[in-house]
Each structure stands twice: as structure tokens, then as C-alpha cells.
Amino acid sequence: MKDHDDYGRIVIESSVPLSTHVEQHTALFLVRIRASRQFVIRRESFESRFVKSIGWAKGSDYYMVTVNASDPGFVHDHFSLTDPFRLIIDIGPPGRDKGKTGKIQPDPPKGKKAQDPDPPAQKPVKKSAAPGREPGEPPASPPSVPSQGIRTIVVDAGHGGLETGAEGKSGITEKDLTLPISKKLKSIIERNLAYRVVLTRDKDVDVSLDNRAAMANNNRAALFISVHVNGSSRKSARGSETFFLSLNATDEEARRLAYMENNSSEIGEKIGSDGEDDLMMILWDMAQSAFIKQSSQLAENIQDELNSLLGTKNRGIKQAPFKVLTGVACPAVLVEVAFISNPEEEKRLVDDAFQNRVAEAIYRGIANFIRKNPLE
Amino acid sequence: MDTKRLLIVVILVVAAAVLAFVFFRSGEEENTKQGKAEFAGEKDRPSEHPLPRKTVTLFFLSEKDSLLHPEEREITEDPSLVHMAMQTIQELLKGPQNGLLSALPYETKLREIFVTKEGTAYVDFSGEIQDDHISGSSAEIYTIFTIVNSLTFNFESIKRVFILVEGSEKETLAGHVDLSRPLLPRFDLVIN
């Protein structure tokens, strides 16, 4: 990837000829590469005014390179050269000089991504579904190493640090309530289930939404539970609800397609291996779409228990495009325990006994879900 | 010599005529293009007769339930989709008139709107929409979908909405709803 005056040029080079297809969805350019075999992929890091990130995903019989342009108004031109095969994609604002693309590329034969057809034991992603413990595939940066055979549940204490979340009349904020509830949930789960629990934070610190999802993926989590308390400008708003991700069927379609054709048990193998940030983020970006059905069941199980244990108003299970859920590669829900903006519920939320009941309810929901959906 | 000079004069006259023609034609084209321009610009339309009005439906919250409630408003009919979209959001920002509740922070201002050929409206708000937001999933969902629903409901050619703050893309408004991609309307949040 290299910037020129008024466009950025991406060169995809391969030692074998490739059949490619380029399409644009606003700022997202998708390059589909037909491939019946494994490729070894090398990438070069880059800085560009025209392209924010480049990632890739693997479909059943193709690879997809995703190029995120810096501006949705950008247009592209592409052409290919042979010996060696190169696909050249120029991205920039409309109305630039067209003649350029006709010229043979002036740039080096070393592209941003080079592919060799021979798969010399460089992490060939095989269809074998054995999750975890493949040689040479350690999780990238888990807070601690999972012990053999024990699965992880990631409990996400919403907000933290400067991100206070919603605020109650008394001045207490969302982040102050999600932490004790999450800690209580951790100890109940670890006491009763053969799972270890990783908290996305165990003190009052900022954790980015991407990192919260990353903790689930890097730990090969079985479940992801995000704990929040709600806020509304409606004084009367009250009750508990459990969310799972809603897919916003626009740009996602293409990405999801590529993803859904994969076996979801492969996800762990493709994520968190080579530490390349934009690669990981792109994959996480799509990850949750493969788990929507399970996530809705998990949400239902948890909501049922909240209803029977808390005596709060049942607001049901709902879908929303929550950022923290989008990249999680396992069943994932976001629990809105009650409304901090409602003075009555605020009082209950700060009460230790109520927090214990919340944790107990979420734990029971999880246990029911696991019972009905035994995890491998 | 003479014939040659005459020829040159003839060529010059023809060239001038052609140029003039092209100039006027392109001027006309420019005008029609501007009429349809999808970018906000200044309006200086002669107002010989009152401009036609268009009724739009806005969405607000109610204390009664956790749904969005419609409220109608009149805006000025305008050949520019962007101008009408901007009027609609301005009306939404003014807040409700019949006892409903606004889901937007009071001081929020609209900066700009543009709409792509594919039907994505980029709606750029001032920083207050984020800085003054009360946070909470519900509050955030309603802030976002009163905007998305109000635009997509009234303008068929707006299919989805990308919300920007101070000209740039944000991850979320207050920690929940993903703003890094365009959003489709959620009419399931509306009463009935």
C-alpha cells in the first residue's frame, strides 16, 4: 500500500494467477479472490491518507481482502498485471486523472500482501474442528493462560474510568454498579460451574470496547456476558432487559456472508494468532454474526431468571447494534439490570443484597443455557 | 491570400458561435444540476408565491411507554433532498410540541447532511450530542433511532443513516450503540 498525490495504491501480489473481483460498499472495498487452496499471506504495514485499514477473511473457497477507505465518497480503479500476478487497486477521491491506471505500475513488485501457493506448515487453517490446543497457536494476550480443559466465561463490567456511563440522582454512576455485580457474578459462577471467569476489568479503569471483545476471543471464551445498568430521559423507565446483537443488514451482508460460510469452530484458530491489529479487528468485527441464534437463547435464559428473581419489570429480550458485542466470537449478551435513572431502582441497585440476586439470576440463566447447549 | 483570410474569419466566427453555444448550454446544465444538488448550499429562490409545504413525521419519546411516538411537522417543499432532510432534523432538534419528550440533548446542533447515491445519509451533529448525553443503553438507542427513523420514514431515497459528530466518525455516542457503520431504521421501536 502506497500513497500517491491524489490516490492510494494497493498491490496484491501472488506467485500464481488469481481470479479476483472488486466491489465497493460506501467506504468498504471488498476484494474477493477465488482460491481452492491455502495461501501463505504476508503483509506489509502501511500508513495512508486514503485507506484506514486492510484486513482479510477466508471463505469456503475464496479469500476476501477488506479495504476500509478513509472517506465513503472515494472511488476506485483496479487492473491486474501478470508475471508475477498483481492486482492493483487505486483508491481516492472521484475525478482524478484516469490515465494513470493504464500505465504499468511504477511501484515495486513487493505488494502489501504476497501469497505463495505451497502451504509449508505455516499455520494451514484446516477444516478439522478441534478447538484450542493446536500447536503453535497460543492465544495472543490473555490476562492469564487458560488451564487445560477449563473453559472461560468473560464477564464484562460495563464502562469504567472516565467512561462513567449513566448517572443516578445520588451521583452514583453506571461504572460503580457494574463492577461489584460483575465480581459477584464471577464468584458465583466459579463456585458452581467448571468455568473460570475473566473480568474485562476488576477495578475502575478505562477499557476500550474492542479490548473487551478481544479478551473474550483471546481467551477462547465460551460465553460473553456484559453487565450494564440502564439510563433514560424518561423518569418512568424501569425494569430489566437482556440484549443480543442486531445485525444491521447493510455493509455487513458481504462480510457476514464470507463469515457464515465458515465453520464457527475455526474462529478460534483464525483469531489472535499473528498479532496484526487490523486483521484481528476485522475478524472480530464480523464474529458475532455467527452466534446470533445462540446469543438469543442465552439472552432468553438470563432474562427468564431476572424476571423470577428480581421482581423488576420484564422488558424482555431485545436486539440492538451494541458495539461491544459485534466482535465477540461466542454467544454474547448485554444485560441491563435496571434503570439508574429511576430513583427507586437506583436505590435497589446500590443494595448489596439486590446485587447478589442479580448475580444469582444471571448465573442461573447461564447454567440453564449451558445445560441445554452443552459446550464442546 | 484573400480566400485564406476569409476562411480564417469564417472559422473564427463558427468557433465563436460554437463556444457561445457550448457556454450557454453548459450554463443551463449547471443550473439544473445545482437544483438537484445533494449538498447543502445557500438558498436564494425568488419567493413570488408561497412555497409549497410538506408534512413530515418526527419521532419522540413518551413518559407513557418505552416506544417512539410520531408527531407531524411542516417543512418547506424543496427540490433538494438535503435541504428537506436538514429541515426535518432541525425540527427534531427543536423538540416536541405536544407533551412528548426529546431524545436528543438540548443544545445539539445540526452541522451538515449529505446523502450518497446509494441512499446513505451522513448526518453531522455538534459535540453536544455526545458531551451532553445522559448515557444508558435506552437513552442512546432512542437518541439514535429518533434520528434514523425520522429521516428514513419521510424520505424514500434515504435508506440508512450514518451519524457523525463534529465531522468525524465515532465508535459510539456513550458506550453502547455502534456508530461505525450506517444504521437502518427501527420501526419496531415505534408505537403500533
Structural overview:
The complex is a heterodimer of chains A (376) and B (192). Helices cover 28% and strands 27% of the residues of chain A. With 376 residues, chain A is of the alpha/beta class. Chain A has 2 domains: 2-116, Sandwich (Immunoglobulin-like); 151-372, 3-Layer(aba) Sandwich (Aminopeptidase), CATH 3.40.630. In chain A, strand 1 (2-3) and strand 2 form a beta hairpin. The longest helix of chain A has 21 residues, at 352-372. Chain A starts with a strand and ends with a helix. With 192 residues, chain B is of the alpha+beta class. Chain B is built from 4 helices and 6 strands. In chain B, strands 3-4-5-6 form a 4-stranded mixed β-sheet. Chain B has a two-stranded antiparallel ribbon with strand order 1-2. In chain B, helix 2 packs antiparallel against helix 4. The chains are: A alpha/beta (376), B alpha+beta (192). Chain A binds chain B through residues 26, 72-73, 158-159, 163-167, 174, 209, 228-237, 243, 248-252, 315, 320-324, 326, 334, 336, 339-341, and chain B through 61-64, 66, 101-103, 116, 118, 120, 122, 134-139, 141-142, 160, 162, 171-172, 174-184.
Brief account:
By secondary structure, chain A is an alpha/beta fold.
**Hey, roughly how much beta strand do the residues of chain A contain?**
25-35%
Q: CATH superfamily name of the largest domain in chain A?
A: Zn-dependent exopeptidases
Number of helices of chain B: 4
| Secondary-structure element series of chain B | HEEHEEHHEE
Topology:
The complex is a heterodimer of chains A (376) and B (192).
Chain A: E1 2-3, E2 8-14, E3 19-25, E4 28-34, E5 40-43, E6 51-58, E7 62-69, E8 75-81, E9 85-92, E10 113-116, E11 151-157, H1 174-192, E12 195-199, H2 209-218, E13 223-230, E14 240-245, H3 252-260, H4 267-270, H5 277-287, H6 292-310, E15 314-320, H7 323-326, E16 332-339, H8 343-350, H9 352-372
Parallel strand pairs in A: 2-10, 11-12, 11-13, 13-16, 14-15
Antiparallel strand pairs in A: 1-2, 2-9, 3-4, 4-7, 5-10, 6-7, 8-9, 14-16
Helix pairs in contact in A: 1-9, 6-9
Chain B: H1 2-36, E1 53-61, E2 68-76, H2 81-94, E3 110-115, E4 120-125, H3 128-131, H4 137-154, E5 160-165, E6 168-169
Parallel strand pairs in B: 4-5
Antiparallel strand pairs in B: 1-2, 3-4, 5-6
Helix pairs in contact in B: 2-4
